């Protein structure tokens, strides 16, 4: 799945990527907005920068993210 700047996402599960850190477990279930999708590379393994509500901005593996619909 390719993410784009401004996409609303949810961290829906722990990533199997080696970039996943233990502190990121606290992000599971939280929502955020993609701020840097690394779209110039379009590498599905690349990290995506997400601004997470009440947690700041972090680079996360794509396999833990899912796009959410705005209500």
Which percent band covers the strand fraction? Answer: 25-35%
Q: How would you characterize the largest beta sheet?
A: 5 strands, antiparallel
Give Rg in angstroms: 11 Å
Q: Give, in spatial order, the strands making up the sheet with the most strands.
A: 4-3-2-1-5
Helix content: under 10%
Cα-to-Cα separation, first versus last residue: 21 Å
Low-confidence stretches: none
Order of helices and strands: EEEEE
**Estimated structural class:** mainly beta
Count of alpha/pi helices: 0
**Strand element count:** 5
Shape: globular
Average pLDDT level:
88
Describe this structure in words.
0% of the residues lie in helices and 32% in strands. It contains no helices and five strands. The protein has strands at 8-11, 31-36, 48-52, 56-60, 65-67. The two termini are 21 Å apart. The model has no long low-confidence stretch (mean pLDDT 88).
């Amino acid at each position: 799945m390719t993410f784009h700047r401004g996409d609303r996402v949810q961290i829906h599960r722990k990533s199997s990527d080696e970039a996943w850190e233990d502190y990121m477990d606290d992000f599971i279930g939280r929502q955020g907005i993609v701020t840097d999708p690394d779209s110039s590379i379009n590498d599905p393994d690349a990290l995506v920068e997400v601004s997470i509500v009440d947690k700041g901005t972090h680079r996360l593996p794509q396999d833990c993210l899912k796009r959410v619909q705005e209500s």
